[in-house]
Specification:
It holds the Pfam family PQQ_2. By secondary structure, this protein is mainly β. It is built from one helix and 33 strands. It has one domain: YVTN repeat-like/Quinoprotein amine dehydrogenase (Methylamine Dehydrogenase, Chain H), CATH 2.130.10. A hairpin with a 4-residue loop joins strand 20 and strand 21. The longest helix has 5 residues.
């Protein structure tokens, strides 16, 4: 039987490179749901915000977030005109800047004429055991040794898997449609790496984690991919890979890539699909900004037993790129039409919303709190409650990026690891103490 871990915290005993409960080994955290399992952090921030422990200014450009496991920090960026994966060794006490351990070239920076948003890798690397998996904008997927940075294998999603990204909204359309560049985080499922190359050869693909060889491609679903990351869902004993695309939501069997079910929107999303879906057992919520809207579906109880049930499909709750998080029965985040909001997850009823506070941004949940980071670099701590926006502290990043282009913002999602808050703005990374030590 193939060993699964799907990033459940209790299943992360993987030897010397083990991922621990206080780590943040991939995009959106241990379970890809923007939740940190940490406890005992500051419930209220000092007036000036939590203490800044250290900062770096060597990351290069890009919106990819940091991945942290043990004493190692992994982050991609454009350095010296090349997409580069960087590994840093964290100090023993965590209070001084980390030291660069190794670098590994990913590939050519994803760039096109007229880009005013910044080139660079836009998705965090995934750490699994002794291996790091990184994806560049042109679809270069690398597996590298976590200790040395030595390359183990490399696959090009467009060239080797026939990949295509939906170019709607701009970006690169020729010779291969790649839109704004690949941005779906690699998903490690046991001894396989799941990616979403898109295109006529299949929306999703599973690769052997040790060799990079293709295990399956979902040839029943021949659709260009989006910028949302694939998710692993186990429902009534069936392990499924879920992907949001412009036409709706798709699920394939994790073992074989066989199509299990498909939700087709009455009107496809006609702009960029970025937000990773929020999943609560058999309930799946998707949201797209730029005037598009949101959907909540309930999937069939058994595989191949029918189509999903549509709970709602509406223009409300338009999340552009900052992500959403479910805490208990409620969904939180920022929507272009609502501002910061709280709504009932299973009904879509908006409990509270406010467009005047903070501005558009990203979100992470920890210990009944939410940390919200605006694209202007303001950061707020609030209670995760349907009672309203209850703020427990706020601060601003000490300086703005020198390399951020005019249309860019602080779009990298916050990261919580080892009792610290990690915030990236292009070349800069700031590390704050959330324990108050």
């Amino acid at each position: 039987m193939r060993r699964r871990f799907g990033w459940a915290v209790l299943s992360l005993a993987m030897g010397a490179g083990a991922v621990l409960a206080g780590d943040w080994p991939q995009y959106r955290g241990p379970n890809r749901d923007a939740h940190s399992p940490e406890r005992g952090l500051l419930a209220t921030w000092p007036k000036a915000g939590p203490k800044l422990l250290w900062s770096l200014s060597s990351l290069g450009t890009g919106y990819a977030g940091p991945s942290i496991a043990g004493n190692q920090l992994i982050v991609p960026g454009v350095v010296d005109q090349r997409e580069t994966l960087q590994a840093y060794t964290l100090s023993a006490d965590g209070k001084s800047p980390p030291k660069l351990a190794w670098t590994r070239e990913i590939g050519e920076p994803f760039q096109w004429r007229g880009n005013s948003w910044n080139a660079g890798p836009n998705v965090a690397a995934t750490i699994a055991g002794e291996t790091v998996y990184a994806l560049g904008g042109f679809g270069d997927l690398l597996a590298v040794d976590r200790k040395s940075g030595a390359e183990r294998w490399r696959v090009s999603l467009p060239k080797d898997l026939g990949g295509e990204v939906n170019p709607i909204g701009g970006g690169l359309e020729e010779p291969t449609p790649l839109g704004w560049g690949y941005a779906g985080a690699p998903l490690v499922d046991g001894d396989r790496v799941i990616v979403s190359p898109g295109g006529k050869s299949g929306l999703l693909a599973a690769l052997d984690a040790k060799t990079g060889k293709v295990v399956w491609q979902s040839r029943e679903v021949r659709e260009q991919t989006s910028y949302a990351s694939p998710m692993l869902l186990t429902h009534n004993g069936q392990s499924q890979i879920v992907q949001v695309v412009n036409s709706g939501i798709v699920a394939v069997a994790a073992d074989t890539g066989k199509l299990l079910w498909r939700y087709v929107r009455a009107k496809p999303y006609d702009d960029v699909v970025v937000t990773t879906p929020v999943i609560d057992r058999g309930w799946i919520f998707s949201s797209v900004g730029f005037g598009q809207g949101s959907d909540l579906i309930r999937i069939p109880e058994a595989a191949n037993s029918g189509e999903p049930t549509t709970i709602f499909s509406k223009k409300q709750t338009q999340n552009r790129d900052g992500g959403l998080v479910r805490v208990g029965d409620y969904l939180y985040g920022h929507a272009e039409d609502l501002g910061w909001f709280c709504q009932e997850f299973r009904t879509g009823k908006v409990i509270w919303s406010d467009k005047r506070i903070l501005g558009r941004g990203s979100i992470v949940a920890v210990d009944a709190k939410l940390i919200c980071c605006s694209e202007r670099g303001e950061v707020a701590l609030i209670d995760a409650t349907p009672e309203g926006w209850t703020e427990r502290g706020r601060f601003a990043l000490p300086k703005a990026s020198r390399n951020r282009l005019p249309n860019g913002g602080v779009w990298t999602h916050p990261v919580i690891a080892d009792g610290k808050l990690w915030l990236r703005d292009q070349e800069s990374l700031f590390c704050y103490d959330l324990r108050g030590e």
